[in-house]
Design a protein that fits this description.
three-stranded antiparallel sheet, 6 strands, 1 helix
Length: 68
C-alpha cells in the first residue's frame, strides 16, 4: 500500500515514487528519509527529489524487474 511522503519513517529502506521530467514513477533503488531530506540507501547519495508517495522496500521487486 502506498502512503504519503510525510508519513515515511526515518532511516528505513523504502520504495519512493517521485515526480521528475519523465512524470511520476518509483525509483529502482531503496531510499531512506533523513532529517535533511532523502538519500539513496545503497550509496548514501543525497537525492534531489519531489516524492509523491512511498511503500516498504521489498527486495523481490528488484529481482523480478531484473528478470523481465
Amino acid at each position: 500500500m502506498w502512503r504519503l511522503p510525510v508519513e515515511a519513517p526515518f532511516e528505513l529502506d523504502i520504495e519512493l515514487a517521485v515526480i521528475d521530467d519523465d512524470g511520476v514513477h518509483s525509483l529502482v533503488f531503496p531510499c531512506q528519509r533523513r532529517p535533511g531530506g532523502w538519500i539513496n540507501a545503497m550509496t548514501g547519495e543525497v537525492l534531489d527529489v519531489h516524492p509523491t508517495h512511498w511503500r516498504v522496500w521489498q527486495i523481490y521487486r528488484c529481482v523480478v524487474s531484473d528478470l523481465q
